[in-house]
């Protein structure tokens, strides 16, 4: 709670001090009395405000905040509605004299004052205003700031009301054309949805996350005490891992995350189980410990599957140095190796890599179908040359590769990747 005299309060106090001094100097008792009275008004009101707030506290008023949509994509607008409701007679009396304003992170307000529309009724008031999400992440909104002036207009009190909210901002994404036969070629044609039986259906293997439960051989699973599936890879949609190498530069980081999220959504819409394998997972609200890969998200989970994928990007944070970034990428690649990535599709968005990074990705292509977008991060003059070298090494290792810069269209980058042969 912050309290301070208003301009009227300061004027009364100043006039009282002048009258008091003049009365003492002139020996006028009336002037002394007037001076004491003028000084006593703001002082008494100030003390009364302290006592009344100590007794009433913040009872009698409830605050509810709603953001639509929430989450919101970076670059989009959202509407915020704050409802302040009085729960008793004292609350209604307090509500009538309050002025409202909101606090928001600069990533939601753009550093500008929020312009709100206030509507009042006897028992509640609403504050409505727009925000514009400018950066991916989780950003605070609120609490509501209320200002009250006493009846005499000499003391202004300022305090917060209600809890703070958090707005989730997803990365900006674009609709990418869903890959079909272009992605996997004729040998894997039915991996994209055909259900043609195979003479190898009797061959069994251990269940892997992302396998279609309809392929589980329940009799053999019960006999062995572990889940087994028919090893016909063509019977279902191949799982997809989207591998991210997050650069140190923030602008390049957001471009990378936007491209990876757009690719993941395109693959999910095609019916593939999709997961993110990133070098920058950090614990966040609802997240566990630091990790390098997420569980598979399945399209059959309904509309929530897209939100589940995008939620995984909220807490992605780049490393502080290039060495830390590559070490984290190697950890993410090792995570793919330990989760039986054989037979899946790995789509990587990476920057210029060292020999160790290229070697790790080359090993992935031995067991999975590898596609990579190699970006030039613009860190130094030779960055484009290093990116080209990384792309060349990956192509020789069996990856399908497209080179890109972080200022180009995501759609053009994706189409170029679809059109490049190994």
Please characterize this protein's 3D structure.
- The chain is α/β, with parallel strands linked by helices and 422 residues long.
- The protein has four domains: 2-56; 61-170, Immunoglobulin-like (Sandwich), CATH 2.60.40.10; 181-193 and 237-419, Rossmann fold (3-Layer(aba) Sandwich); 198-236, no CATH class.
- Helix content is 36%, strand content 25%.
- The protein has twelve helices and 17 strands.
- It has helices at residues 7-26, 29-56, 89-96, 106-109, 181-184, 218-224, 250-269, 304-311, 322-338, 355-367, 383-396, 410-419, and strands at residues 2-5, 61-68, 72-73, 77-86, 98-104, 117-120, 124-132, 137-149, 155-161, 165-170, 204-206, 228-230, 240-244, 274-278, 345-350, 369-376, 400-405.
- Strands 1, 3, 5, 8, 9 and 10 form a six-stranded mixed β-sheet that branches.
- Strand 8 (137-149) and strand 9 (155-161) form a beta hairpin.
- Helix 7 packs antiparallel against helix 8 (304-311) and helix 9 runs parallel beside helix 10 (355-367).
- Mean pLDDT is 81; it is low at 181-202 and 283-291.
Q: Give the number of helices.
A: 12
Q: Rough shape?
A: elongated
Give the CATH level 1 class of the largest domain: Alpha Beta
Unreliably modeled segments? 181-202, 283-291
Helix-strand topology string: EHHEEEHEHEEEEEHEHEEHEHHEHEHEH
Helix content: 25-40%
Domain DUF58: 204-278
Pfam families: DUF58
InterPro entries: DUF58
Protein name: DUF58 domain-containing protein
């Amino acid at each position: 709670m912050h309290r301070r005299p208003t301009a009227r309060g300061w004027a009364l106090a100043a006039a009282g001090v002048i009258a008091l001094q003049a009365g003492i100097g002139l020996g006028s008792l009336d002037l002394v009395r007037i001076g004491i009275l003028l000084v006593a008004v703001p002082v008494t009101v100030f003390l009364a405000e302290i006592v009344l707030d100590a007794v009433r506290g913040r009872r009698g008023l409830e605050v509810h905040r709603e953001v639509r949509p929430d989450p919101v994509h970076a670059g989009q607008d959202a509407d915020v509605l704050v409802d302040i409701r009085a729960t008793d007679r004292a609350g209604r009396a307090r509500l009538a004299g309050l002025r409202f304003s909101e606090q928001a992170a600069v990533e939601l307000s753009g550093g500008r004052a929020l312009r709100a529309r206030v509507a009042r009724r006897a028992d509640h008031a609403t504050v409505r205003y727009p925000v514009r999400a400018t950066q991916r992440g989780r950003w605070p909104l609120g609490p509501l700031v209320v200002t009250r002036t006493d009846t005499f207009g000499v003391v202004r009190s300022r305090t917060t009301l209600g809890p703070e909210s958090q707005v989730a901002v997803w990365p900006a994404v674009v609709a990418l054309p869903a890959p079909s036969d272009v992605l996997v070629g004729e040998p894997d044609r039915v991996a994209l949805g055909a259900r043609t039986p195979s003479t190898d259906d009797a061959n069994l293997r251990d269940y892997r996350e992302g396998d279609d439960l309809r392929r589980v051989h329940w009799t053999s699973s019960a006999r062995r005490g572990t889940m087994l599936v028919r090893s016909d890879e063509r019977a279902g949609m191949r799982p997809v891992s989207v591998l991210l190498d997050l650069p140190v530069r923030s602008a390049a980081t957001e471009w990378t995350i936007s491209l990876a999220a757009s690719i993941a959504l395109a693959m999910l819409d095609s019916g593939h189980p999709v997961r993110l394998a990133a070098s920058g997972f950090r614990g966040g609200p609802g997240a566990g410990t630091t990790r390098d890969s997420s569980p598979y998200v399945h399209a059959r989970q309904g509309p929530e599957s897209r939100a589940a994928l995008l939620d995984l990007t909220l807490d992605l944070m780049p490393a502080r140095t290039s060495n830390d970034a590559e070490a984290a990428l190697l950890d993410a690649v090792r995570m793919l190796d330990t989760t039986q990535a054989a037979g899946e599709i790995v789509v990587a968005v990476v920057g210029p890599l060292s020999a160790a990074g290229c070697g790790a990705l080359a090993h992935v292509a031995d067991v999975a179908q590898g596609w990579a977008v190699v970006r030039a991060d613009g860190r130094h003059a030779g960055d484009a040359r290093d990116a080209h070298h990384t792309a060349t090494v990956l192509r020789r290792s069996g990856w399908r590769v497209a080179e890109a810069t972080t200022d180009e269209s995501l759609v053009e980058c994706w189409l170029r990747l679809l059109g490049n042969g190994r």
